[in-house]
Amino acid sequence: MPRRHDNLFDAIANFGALHQAARRAILGKRRKPGAAAFFANLEGELLNLERQLQDGTYRPGRYVAFEVNDPKKRIVSAAPFRDRVVHHALCAVVEPIFEAGFIDHTFANRKGKGTHRAIEVYEHYRYRHAHVLRCDIYRYFPAIDHELLKAAFRRRISCVRTLALLDLNVDRSNAQEPVNLYFDGDDLFAPFKRRRGLPIGNLTSQFFANLYLDGFDHFVTEVLRAPFVRYVDDFALFHDDPAVLADWRERIDSYLAGRRLRLHPGKTFIAPTAATANFLGFELHGDGGRSLPDDNVRRFRNRLRGLRDQWRAGTVGMGDVEPRVRAWIAHAENANTWRLRHAIFGGGRFDPRQSEAWTAPCRRVLRGGSWNNNPQNLRSANRNRNTTDNRNNNIGFRVGSTLSARTGAITVSPGEH
């Protein structure tokens, strides 16, 4: 039986802890009206929040829900800023207790982990095994069962007031999309009697999502003893024998049923590890290369144009634009995207003061070359790094981008150039 922790509440509901939580909650949100209003009367807001937490009168406010369709349809919920402060204060105390028991190979929303570390571990295993079982949980966040989640809290926490605050956070979740699944022992009304679903967008929801599958992580690594990597509800197991993976799939399906979850039938499959795999926003190729899927690039271009238009209209400042652009560049640098970044930004850097920063053309030749002093240059796969307007007496061909990178069109220059 794991150790249970008591006397935690005073470390959550005190002015100092709430002040630090507010500082963390406002990062990247200073221009939001709710955050700005809270900080305009910071001391008074924090004292009021402390009093309500201590006397038990604190109640979370209403969520603002909106639908996102890119890359897939989902409902994102935004809590009032004062509730976000409570979420940060709560997680700062409770999360380390559970973090100590998490396995090393679950990577979402954990310090020192993240998408790129998960991809590195995925590649480590794919080079050592012939097949992979890729799995995805069907509508994971909307399907999380409140009763089972609250039971998970009580495995490590015995502080009554902290448990009441955790339960309140779960109980006041707004309604999510319905997931009407039936499991052994259910009657006709079981899916409608059990409360399910966590709001995507909450800091607490990210933590709860890891906690809800903690037992599953230990089952895979300690009972199945499988090479394993998980990022939220997307996970992979590796083995040389596909029959073993098929058996693991059945056992995983049975285990998840106990958590009232199902594997996604269209996103769960066994494949050779040598095949190109789409994992966490990258295309991972059998030769070790990485690239960004076309949809990923298209979404970023659309966001970049939207930011450009807002910046030109004066509705956003550089403090809002630059972090988003640089975050995408940092993400893209983990793949073979040197030419892509040069195509978008020209020189691979983002300088919003330059007009070309938003629509910079790619001035590098993409493919092809010419016979000069090396016949290798004539191969269509050769990347000759001359500029598209370079002229000399070599014979061959080049394929280069046009001056409008937004169109994605290319120009072929055959013959003498």
Question: Can you give a write-up of this model?
Answer:
The protein is of the alpha+beta class and 417 residues long. It has helices at residues 9-12, 15-25, 33-40, 42-55, 81-99, 115-126, 140-143, 146-153, 160-171, 190-193, 203-212, 214-224, 242-258, 294-313, 318-332, 338-345, 356-359; strands at 64-68, 74-78, 131-136, 228-231, 234-239, 269-272, 277-279, 282-284, 290-291, 365-371, 395-401, 410-416. The strands form four sheets. Strands 4-5-3-6 form a four-stranded antiparallel β-sheet, with helices on both faces. A hairpin with a 5-residue loop joins strand 1 (64-68) and strand 2. The longest helix has 20 residues, at 294-313. The chain is globular. It starts with 8 loop residues before the first helix and ends with a strand. The model is unreliable at 359-368, 380-385 and 400-417 (pLDDT under 50).
Task: Present the secondary structure layout.
Elements: H1 9-12, H2 15-25, H3 33-40, H4 42-55, E1 64-68, E2 74-78, H5 81-99, H6 115-126, E3 131-136, H7 140-143, H8 146-153, H9 160-171, H10 190-193, H11 203-212, H12 214-224, E4 228-231, E5 234-239, H13 242-258, E6 269-272, E7 277-279, E8 282-284, E9 290-291, H14 294-313, H15 318-332, H16 338-345, H17 356-359, E10 365-371, E11 395-401, E12 410-416
Helix pairs in contact: 2-5, 5-11, 12-13, 14-15
